[in-house]
Amino acid sequence: MAPDAGGSPIKGYRIFVRQNDGVTFTLELDDCDGTTSQTIISETQCTVKVSTLRDAPFNLPWGASVFVKVLAFNSYGDSEVSDAGNGAVIITYADAPVSLIETVSARSATSITFSWTAGATNGGSTVSGYRVNSDGALGVWSVIADNVVGTYYTATGLTAGLTYSFKIESENEFGYSDYSQEVSILCATIPLKPA
Predict the structure, then answer these.
(1) What angle do CA 174, 176, 178 make, to 5 degrees?
(2) Domain limits at 82?
(3) What distances in angstroms separate CA 89 from CA 54, 79, 81, 131, one per listed residue?
(4) How far apart are CA 4 and CA 9, in angstroms?
(5) By mean pLDDT, which of 12-21, 93-102, 129-138 is the weakest?
(6) Could you tell me if residue 39 is inside a domain?
């Protein structure tokens, strides 16, 4: 909300973001230069890139709250700096799962079990589950399971002798990650005992 202009139109805002040290507030001009953007002035808001907040001098980690102070200025000078407010948390998509591999000990003629490892970072928000995609052995991809809590899955009802491909996505509160590397697995097991 715009403050009282003091009788002369507000010409801009200066936005200060708190660094990771929890004390120092530094002027942010890359994304929120209130001196040159009429949109920032009229809407009293701006968008700061996550990459800006993650880099020096701010160095905020994934999951950090973003604390900001603002001052307004007009032709007569600067207002006092606002109290610090925080309404944002640095989050993004989690990294894609890695190391997708068949669980060989669980092989059957009509099912494939496989596992994976969580990606390196969760994007600042806990991974709530995984989404499993398969090409159905036909080259046409679709989601076959959603909200998978563990890091393994068994695809059932498959046809022996066909090769199925799978890829996984991680989900956090921001959304779905990129796909993992896909893995192709022949649906097959050892032969039956001879008669």
Answers:
(1) 125
(2) 12-89
(3) 12, 27, 22, 24
(4) 9
(5) 12-21
(6) yes
